[in-house]
């Protein structure tokens, strides 16, 4: 749709137009279960020689699992096609997935992670000293990065890590005569998992709204704290990318009433090596290794978290911890079970391959490298912000300095053209990029959130900004055309209403068959 | 010389404290007066005049004589054509005027630089009619909120703010919507706002109250959660005053009570029977005097919702909750429980909740932070301030 009318006749190979003439593959690929054919096999396993083993009836299943029956080629082709119908990190300029911290996951780290494949979680610790040492060293590095005394790598990331922290907060208060503390305070621009996990753990949630500067209203915090306060769970910088420079006052206020302060550092990309959670008095924090520490996002799959605590919270850490002991003059790594542990959040030790990937990433950078990551991410964000704000109709609320991301608004463009932020993002997908708007409810009208990490080069950011500028211009010239997008994508618009209708939800193929296919025909 | 015209709809707001939901039509106005309502539009217009004169001393004020004018005007314009041969003076000292009188007064003041009118959505419709008749000759206008329902976007958020905006007016205007409800349907519990048109108002976005935004249909589950939370914290022996709105109606429903959508109801929670849920309606759709009698000397609490887009908690659609009712509730140790979905608070764009009871002292007593219930076991602490203090440049 772009670059039409330009002359490419001068050179044997025509130069590329300023905007990519992208077109996503469309394979109309069915669900893998629909591709299954009875009896088809990927591998013909030879009949085992020797005597057969009779499994006891108690462990034998009555019916074979309904797995898709496919050949190797069909499996390979299926997943390659799906990957082409996708805008994954390795294909697009993924700065539009704001708050998700999309950064390059070095492929070499997959090789190191692969080395852990032969390990079994039930192996005796004497036989896995190497991987336990990695856990221990990784913990020490994260403790240094956060200022916390201990860090557990046992929980998953995101909500699993936040839940681990709220579980420790509850255990701490219960052990210290604070059973009556039943309120958790969070903020509107903190990740909503903080409110969700606190509520899941049985707490009443008080959410502070932003003040006129876009920061959580400290006067409201003063009114909210009291003897019922269990904890403050807060992100900083918040989703807006604005750093709350009064954060120490927030922590001190909560401490003054006996509450704990918990720092959601899932995304610590803008502050690595610059500021530390413990230095302003936080009692707990967590990291998502797939955000700041470069392990793959894996569609929300096997990500690993890290929960850091101050000394007073150590007895409540998830189990097991990995400790170093001296034994006969030698260093040994052992599993320990803290006396008042909140238990296991994930099975076994945690997600070992991702701990190895993140360990390799930190080791490759060193302390200076980590700080450079933050500085480059902040520089990239401010460069992109400068470019975006030159687009007529785009703005960023609260004229404050931004750290690693920014939540922008198309309010003016939308008022002038009738085109909404979602529609602009969908049209951008015709150029091979995308963006995310905002968590709900939308406090910023017509929002979009961009977060260029340290992974991107200047020309990537220039291309991304040029695409948005082009689409904004299209919105003015032909709003209906933008509203009709996408044109170059795998599928057209998605009807989102099913997301609000539990009757239509089908998280598995089995549920889809039961809800939508059975009883038909 | 910069001239600001003033028109007062003296009957605006009469029906509010009387629990009549509006003041359209002389029958309703007579009924309101019979129920003890006092006119307040004149006083609210005078507030705006005082602020205007304090901020821009040399300004010329033009108004019409009689009940549709304001006191303290420097210049009287020729009188509006009296619609009634005998403006019905009755006890309370108010002349009952009609839509035609409003239109005539606007026409008489057509050559001012800015015309302020005190009234509600009904008055705004009459002004819109007059402006449309005048066409190009019509001045920009601005509403001084004085009606029962002030849902249109052409009103300042308080009388003082109207004075400020008038004083700072530099000729730049924007369009603002005029919406109104059919009061007959509204009294029967049907909310059917209709867009009548738009008026040219001073461009001062933050100072205008904005058009009302209702509870959205998708927030249904959240509203139920809010109701459950309110009922969970209710204690027997306390009179809960439920203000108008879909959110407070859900509280009544959660208690198993048929409370009214648009009226002010007083309920009590039942004792330990039926799992502790259930209750009684002590007073349904009460007027201000009835409400005062129900809370005086009793332990009570106020449960009020927020007008989306505007932020009003008091003074819009719930004038029954008067300054003396608030004092009585406070004397009984009662708290103010504010209900709003997060979505609704988001429509305020960081602006505070507003109180505009008509008594500045009462409003300033509410100033500070209020707990706002946003869902089941979910709340926020949100700034509330007198409407007259918000937007003082």
From TrEMBL, chain A:
GO terms for biological process: glycine decarboxylation via glycine cleavage system. Residues 170-293 form the Aminotransferase class V domain. NCBIfam families: PRK04366.1. It holds the Pfam family GcvP2_C. Its EC number is 1.4.4.2. One of its GO terms (cellular component) is cytosol. Transmembrane segments: none annotated. It catalyses: N(6)-[(R)-lipoyl]-L-lysyl-[glycine-cleavage complex H protein] + glycine + H(+) = N(6)-[(R)-S(8)-aminomethyldihydrolipoyl]-L-lysyl-[glycine-cleavage complex H protein] + CO2. Signal peptide: none annotated. It comes from the Bacteria. The glycine cleavage system catalyzes the degradation of glycine. The P protein binds the alpha-amino group of glycine through its pyridoxal phosphate cofactor; CO(2) is released and the remaining methylamine moiety is then transferred to the lipoamide cofactor of the H protein. Keywords: Oxidoreductase, Pyridoxal phosphate. Residues 374-476 form the Glycine dehydrogenase C-terminal domain. GO terms for molecular function: glycine binding; glycine dehydrogenase (decarboxylating) activity; pyridoxal phosphate binding. This is glycine dehydrogenase (aminomethyl-transferring).
TrEMBL record, chain B:
The keyword Amino-acid biosynthesis does not apply. It comes from the Bacteria. GO terms for molecular function: ATP binding; NAD binding; NAD+ kinase activity. Keywords: Kinase, Transferase. One of its GO terms (biological process) is NADP+ biosynthetic process. It holds the Pfam family NAD_kinase_C. PANTHER family: ACETOIN CATABOLISM PROTEIN X, ATP-NAD KINASE-RELATED. This is Putative polyphosphate/ATP-dependent NAD kinase.
């Amino acid at each position: 749709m772009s670059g039409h009318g330009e002359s490419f006749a001068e050179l044997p190979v025509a130069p590329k137009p300023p905007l990519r003439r992208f077109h996503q593959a469309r394979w109309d690929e069915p669900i893998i279960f629909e591709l299954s054919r009875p009896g088809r096999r990927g591998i013909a396993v030879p009949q085992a020689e020797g005597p057969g083993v009779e499994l006891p009836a108690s462990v034998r299943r009555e019916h074979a699992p309904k797995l898709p029956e496919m050949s190797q080629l069909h499996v390979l082709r299926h997943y390659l096609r799906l990957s082409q119908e996708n805008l994954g990190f390795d294909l697009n300029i993924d700065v539009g997935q704001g708050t998700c911290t999309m950064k390059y996951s070095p492929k070499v780290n997959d090789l190191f992670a692969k080395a852990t494949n032969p390990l079994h979680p039930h192996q005796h610790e004497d036989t896995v000293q190497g991987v336990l040492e990695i856990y221990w060293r990784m913990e020490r590095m994260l403790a240094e990065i956060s200022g916390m005394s201990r860090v557990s790598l046992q929980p998953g990331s995101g909500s699993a890590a936040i839940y681990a922290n709220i579980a420790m907060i509850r255990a701490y208060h219960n052990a210290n005569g604070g059973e009556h503390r039943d309120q958790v305070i969070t903020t509107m621009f903190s990740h909503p998992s903080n409110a969700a996990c606190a509520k899941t753990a049985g707490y009443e949630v008080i959410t502070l709204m932003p003040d006129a500067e876009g920061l959580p209203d400290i006067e409201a915090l003063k009114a909210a704290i009291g003897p019922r306060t269990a904890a403050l769970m807060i992100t900083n910088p918040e989703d807006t990318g604005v750093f709350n420079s009064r954060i120490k006052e927030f922590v001190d206020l909560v401490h003054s009433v006996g509450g704990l302060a918990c720092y959601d550092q899932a995304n610590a990309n803008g502050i690595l090596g610059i500021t530390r959670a413990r230095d302003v008095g936080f009692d707990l924090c967590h990291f998502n290794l797939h955000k700041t520490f470069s392990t793959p996002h894996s569609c929300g799959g096997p990500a690993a978290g890290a929960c850091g605590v101050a000394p007073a919270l150590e007895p409540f850490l998830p189990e097991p911890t990995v400790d170093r002991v001296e034994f006969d003059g030698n260093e040994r790594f052992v599993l320990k079970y803290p006396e008042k542990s909140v238990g296991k959040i994930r099975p076994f030790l945690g997600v070992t391959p991702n701990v190895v990937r993140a360990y390799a990433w930190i080791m490759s950078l060193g302390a200076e490298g980590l700080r450079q990551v933050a500085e480059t991410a902040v520089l990239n964000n401010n460069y992109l912000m400068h470019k975006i704000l030159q687009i007529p109709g785009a703005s960023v609320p609260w004229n404050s300095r931004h750290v690693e991301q920014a939540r922008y608004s198309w309010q003016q463009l939308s008022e002038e053209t009738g085109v909404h932020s979602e529609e602009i993002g969908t049209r951008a997908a015709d150029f091979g990029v995308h963006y995310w708007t905002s968590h709900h409810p939308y406090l910023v009208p017509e929002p979009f959130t961009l977060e260029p990490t340290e992974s991107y080069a200047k020309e990537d950011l220039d291309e991304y900004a040029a695409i948005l500028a082009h689409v904004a211009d299209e919105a003015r010239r032909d709003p209906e055309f933008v509203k009709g997008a996408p044109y170059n994508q795998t599928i057209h618009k998605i009807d989102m209403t099913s997301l609000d209708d539990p009757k239509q939800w089908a998280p598995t193929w089995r549920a889809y068959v039961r809800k939508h296919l059975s009883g038909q025909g | 010389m910069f001239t600001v015209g003033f028109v007062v709809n003296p009957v605006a707001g009469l029906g509010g404290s009387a629990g009549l939901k509006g003041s359209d039509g002389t029958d309703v106005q007579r009924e309101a007066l019979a129920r003890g309502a006092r006119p307040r539009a004149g006083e609210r217009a005078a507030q705006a005049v005082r602020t205007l004169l304090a901020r821009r001393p040399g300004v010329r004020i033009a108004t019409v004589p009689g009940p549709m004018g304001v006191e303290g005007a420097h210049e009287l314009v020729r009188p509006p054509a009296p619609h009634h041969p005998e403006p019905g003076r009755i006890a309370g000292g108010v002349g009952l005027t009609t839509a035609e009188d409003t239109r005539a007064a606007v026409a008489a003041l057509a050559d001012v630089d800015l015309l302020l009118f005190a009234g509600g959505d009904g008055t705004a419709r009459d002004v819109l009619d007059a402006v449309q008749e005048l066409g190009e000759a019509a001045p920009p206008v601005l509403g001084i909120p004085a009606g029962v329902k002030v849902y249109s976007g052409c009103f300042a958020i308080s009388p003082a703010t109207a004075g400020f905006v008038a004083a700072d007016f530099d000729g730049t205007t924007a369009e603002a919507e005029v919406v109104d409800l059919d009061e007959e349907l509204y009294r029967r519990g049907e909310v059917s706002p209709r867009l009548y048109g738009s008026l040219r108002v001073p461009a001062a976005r933050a100072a205008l109250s904005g058009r009302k935004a209702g509870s959205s249909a998708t927030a249904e589950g959240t509203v139920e959660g809010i109701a459950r939370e309110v009922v969970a914290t209710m204690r027997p022996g306390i009179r809960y005053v439920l203000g108008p709105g879909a959110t407070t109606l859900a509280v009544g429903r959660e208690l198993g009570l048929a409370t009214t959508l648009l009226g002010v109801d007083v309920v009590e929670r039942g004792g330990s029977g039926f799992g502790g849920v259930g209750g009684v309606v002590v007073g349904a759709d009460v007027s201000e005097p009835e409400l005062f009698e129900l809370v005086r000397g009793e332990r009570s609490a106020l449960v009020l919702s927020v007008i989306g887009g505007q932020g009003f908690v008091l003074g819009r659609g719930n004038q029954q909750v008067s300054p003396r009712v608030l004092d009585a509730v406070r004397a009984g140790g009662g708290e103010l429980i504010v209900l709003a979905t997060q979505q609704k608070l988001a429509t305020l764009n960081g602006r505070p909740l507003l109180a505009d009871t008509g008594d500045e002292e009462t409003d300033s007593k509410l100033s500070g932070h209020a707990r706002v219930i946003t869902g089941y076991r979910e709340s926020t602490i949100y700034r509330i301030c007198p409407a007259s203090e918000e937007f003082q440049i």
